[in-house]
Write a structure and sequence with these properties.
- The structure is a single chain.
- The chain is α/β, with parallel strands linked by helices.
- Helices cover 36% and strands 21% of the residues.
- It folds into two domains: 105 residues, Rossmann fold (3-Layer(aba) Sandwich); 120 residues, Rossmann fold (3-Layer(aba) Sandwich).
- The longest helix has 12 residues.
- The radius of gyration is 18 Å and the shape is elongated.
Length: 232
């Protein structure tokens, strides 16, 4: 059994790909995403002077979807002059649908993004992310970055309980570390299940491996195609 833990709003393309390739997929979303209605005064100040940023970094397709809504309250998307950066293919595609061409790193992670920003000599950036941001890019810069936390991530406790009835050796698609930690913190005797964990990055895989709770596999990339290919 392959288990998709992504939010329902982010699983449309994944489910379509699975159906098209006759891959049996069980959806148990562990979080839900919603736009963050009230911004801080600091975030509002960032948006009022958004033209002062050399680059705008979108950390996910959700950051693009909800971040652009916030930006549109202050300016037309077509008027953005800053260089645009996308963490991966899904984010780049989402941005292109809004008429924005984005640079994308060779490695779809914070290290790859940091190297890309350094290559373009971009240091004054606005980071568009969610409230679950782990400050990974800031760690590379060794300083806090101006942020727009455009969306909330809420745990779905009623779905977490469903995991406990899954059979041993179930295969989980883990797209971010927070999802695994959510499972870990709500699951007793996780190691006894012998689950298989398909991880979207080596960083996630290293943490999962350290918990000694089953087999860990790192996907070639965090795209849903590569994640599902590893799960079969």
């Amino acid at each position: 059994m392959i288990v998709n833990t992504r939010p329902e709003k982010l699983s449309r393309d994944l489910n379509y790909f699975a159906q098209s390739n006759q891959i049996e997929l069980t959806n148990i979303p562990l979080t839900e995403i919603s736009i963050r209605e009230a911004l801080s005064q600091e975030e509002i100040e960032h948006l009022t002077k958004i033209e002062s940023f050399d680059g705008i970094v979108f950390t996910s397709s959700s950051a693009c979807k909800y971040g652009l809504r916030k930006i549109q309250d202050f300016m037309e998307i077509s008027e953005i002059k800053s260089s645009i950066f996308a963490i991966g293919p899904a984010t780049k595609t989402e941005l292109k649908e809004h008429g924005l061409e984005a640079f994308m790193p060779a490695e779809f992670n914070s290290k790859g993004m940091f190297e890309l920003l350094m290559k373009h000599e971009i240091k004054n950036i606005l980071l568009v992310c969610g409230t679950n941001n782990e400050n990974l890019l800031e760690n590379h810069f060794k300083q806090a970055l101006p942020k727009l936390e455009a969306y909330n991530v809420k745990p779905l406790e009623y779905n977490i309980g469903k995991l406990k009835s899954l059979p041993k050796n179930s295969v989980f698609l883990i797209f971010n570390l927070a999802t695994f930690k959510l499972i870990e913190h709500n699951f007793e005797n996780l190691s006894e299940k012998n689950f298989v964990w398909i991880c979207a990055s080596q960083r996630i895989a290293d943490y999962v491996e350290s918990m000694k709770c089953g087999k860990t596999i790192t996907a070639k990339s965090p795209t849903y195609e590569d994640m599902l290919n590893e799960a079969q």
